[in-house]
Write a structure and sequence with these properties.
Length: 680
């Protein structure tokens, strides 16, 4: 997969720039993108994972298209199979010291993960993840969060009432726990920036007298108060959906009170921006004093719809497009350059001496996503204004897309120099980092999909009408987007030559035209809800979460414990920058890798994935065997699919086994890297 994305971005291959549309004929009224061809081009042997899952996208901007598909590759690779606990989405591929053990979960990026995952036709990944967050303690408040809001956002797409309401009591319980960060006198939430996932911000640096900023700096921040507003609103809406009007009114009132307090107390008239006020009181800063510089986090109230009906604050958006403000040449600054400690490097990784994450200026995909969410909300739902426009959204989305590139290679990292666009941290853990969103910005922003709880769908693409030059998008297509049990497709064609269905914007539901207009602008259609397909949950019996427990891995060679564990850790990825799996370590032609379940288990299927590239190649052939009465017996497994940088799967008649192994014959001169073995 990593190699595929290197090639896809190399000089933007001719197939990315082809003028002829990638269409196939269809009996329905809707045009059709050629899904098999597109997915094979983007994902090679792993295309089968994406088929029937992701919505297809194309536009006249080849770079946006490429990053869109790359971001789904990040999403796919960050799905960790926990066995009977289902799937979760991770932030890092490598284990980090601050993750929740033994799952490798973190709750700070969860909102993005769910906003992205709600657009998959396979609803298992988001559904499993939400179950983990509320049933398995995954929402542990390690960081500030807007997870209830993300559950509501998912409901707006799939309309699954039962799934949305299942965890409502837990949502209310967790919301109440945040009282430990609530100042009842001020009516606002406060947090330490580190626990807001934003260490080395103005409040923490200044609270240290400019000496540090990793810890400390407790403050009433726009971020946590926006999250808690969004969560209160979501709990109110979900309670209304459940018929609990008293709770709905209670949480609606909480949201309204927070909205008023943020507007009155966190708005700085001198700075023309939403800012922190200090909770901490020490020799450097005083309680309730506002911080002295603007930060990108000040756009969070817009990201969650807190300010849809207030026009008096929109002047803050001038700072986003000002070269003296947040507008770096290559990315959005997290702090304006006028700040005394702008881009001062405080923290270094001890083993390598490399620079560590700080949010005192660097461009950060996390807050870039939030700012773009806020801008989209302002443009689609806010009061009329002339400060910032749709052309700015498109330009900033394209700038963000460019951050995903390192030369001709796609690799999103943790943070960047906002003027050069070069990665700052660049540690081993940083490659293909999933602490941000992108697909949702394309779907709800650029393509303008506005999901709702009622039986309508509205389109409002954030494309400037009548634009020329770099602002121009001549066409786009979004195909097979799940919505309320249907499949929705949207096609925009400036002059009618791309899709040959006429000029303008067209909305199709299950292949039938549901609405159209000849120009860009809002378009709505009634869509009666329909039941979703049931979620299928095969359980992987080979996942190991606790290294000292079963199942355990053994191999004919390459006995390094972590590499053995990699092949049964529930992670499947093929990025060369992130070696993942067990590697053979001998020249013997035949190699084997075994899983000891610790007790007999009943199995009816298996999946194998191998990395192909560099000195590694998938084996020439392989077979499954199971151990019974001290003897290895063959499993009558016939694999389909390509396991090299993809998944080969097999179903077979039931076998009861204490151990299962794959026996492989390697190619001459090549080693085997078994990325993952799954057994069902």
């Amino acid at each position: 997969m990593g190699r595929r994305f290197r090639l896809a971005s190399r000089a933007l291959l001719p197939w990315l720039l082809a003028a002829a549309p990638a269409l196939v004929s269809a009996a329905s009224a809707a045009p059709r993108l050629d899904a098999p061809a597109i997915l094979a081009s983007r994902y090679g042997n792993d295309a089968a994972w994406y088929a029937d899952r992701i919505p297809l996208f194309e536009s006249s901007d080849a770079k946006l298209d490429t990053v869109y598909y790359y971001r789904w590759a990040i999403y796919r690779a960050h799905q960790r199979d926990l066995g009977d606990k289902g799937y979760i989405t991770t932030e890092f591929f490598d284990d980090v010291g601050w993750q929740r053990e033994p799952y490798a979960s973190l709750n700070d990026a969860t909102g993005f993960h769910l906003y992205e995952g709600r657009w998959l036709r396979d609803r298992r990944f988001a559904d499993d993840y939400i179950r983990f967050l509320y049933d398995e303690g995954g929402n542990d408040r390690h960081f500030s969060e807007a997870i209830a809001d993300a559950v509501w956002a998912r409901y707006l797409v799939d309309g699954d009432r039962e799934g949305a309401l299942r965890h409502l009591p837990a949502m209310r319980h967790i919301y109440g726990l945040w009282d430990d960060r609530f100042d009842f006198a001020k009516g606002l939430y406060w947090i330490e920036p580190l626990l807001d996932a934003t260490e080395y911000t103005v409040s923490s640096i200044d609270a240290s007298g400019g000496k540090d900023g990793f810890r400390g700096g407790d403050a009433f921040r726009p971020s946590i108060n926006s999250y808690m507003f969004a969560n209160a609103r979501a709990i109110s809406q979900l309670s209304a959906l459940a018929g609990d009007e008293a709770t709905a009114r209670d949480y609606a009132a909480r949201a309204e009170r927070l909205k008023q307090r943020v507007a009155e107390d966190l708005w700085s008239a001198p700075l023309g921006h939403f800012i922190d006020r200090y909770k901490v009181d020490n020799e450097h800063v005083k309680y309730w004093t506002p911080i002295r510089a603007r930060e990108l986090v000040g756009y969070l109230p817009w990201a969650f719809g807190m300010l849809d009906d207030w026009a008096e604050f929109t002047g803050a958006w001038t700072h986003l497009i000002s070269a003296q403000g947040f507008a770096g040449a290559a990315g959005m600054r997290t702090v304006e350059p006028s700040y005394q400690y702008y881009m001062r490097q405080y923290r270094y990784d001890t083993p390598t001496g490399g620079r560590e994450c700080q949010w005192n200026g660097p461009a950060w995909p996390f807050q870039t996503t939030q700012a773009l969410m806020g801008l989209a909300r302002l443009l689609q739902h806010g009061a009329p204004q002339s400060v910032i426009g749709r052309g700015d959204y498109l330009r900033l989305l394209r700038q963000y897309a460019q951050l995903h590139y390192q030369g001709d290679r796609l690799d999103l990292e943790e943070d960047y120099d906002p003027d050069s666009g070069k990665p700052i941290v660049g540690l081993a853990r940083s490659h293909h980092y999933f602490h941000s969103g992108f697909g949702d910005l394309v779907i709800t922003g650029l393509a303008g999909i506005e999901p709702s709880a009622d039986d309508t769908l509205t389109l409002d693409p954030l494309i400037p009408a009548g634009a020329h030059g770099p602002e121009r998008i001549r066409y786009f297509a979004l195909q097979d987007l799940p919505y309320h049990g249907h499949l929705v497709s949207v096609f925009y064609d400036e002059d009618g030559t791309r899709y040959r269905e006429g000029r303008g914007l067209r909305l199709y539901v299950d292949g039938v035209l549901a609405g159209s207009r000849d120009t860009l602008g809002k378009l709505s259609a009634a869509i009666a809800p329909r039941a979703n397909a049931p979620i299928v949950r095969p359980i992987n019996r080979a996942t190991n979460l606790v290294r000292s427990a079963y199942p355990r891995a053994e191999a004919s060679s390459g006995a390094e414990p972590e590499r053995l564990h990699d092949a049964i850790d529930g992670r499947v990825s093929f990025f060369p920058e992130l070696p993942n799996g067990w590697d053979s370590a001998s020249d013997a032609a035949e190699q084997w890798f075994a899983v000891d379940f610790g007790a007999p288990v009943r199995l009816t299927g298996a999946e194998l994935s191998f990395f192909a590239g560099e000195e590694f190649a998938a084996p020439r052939d392989y077979r499954l065997e199971y151990l019974r009465d001290g003897k290895w017996l063959p499993v009558a497994a016939r694999f389909t699919g390509k396991g090299d940088n993809g998944v080969a799967s097999a179903s077979f008649g039931p076998v009861t086994a204490g151990k299962l192994r794959v026996v492989m014959r390697k190619l001459p001169g090549k080693r085997i890297r078994l990325v993952e073995l799954k057994a069902f």
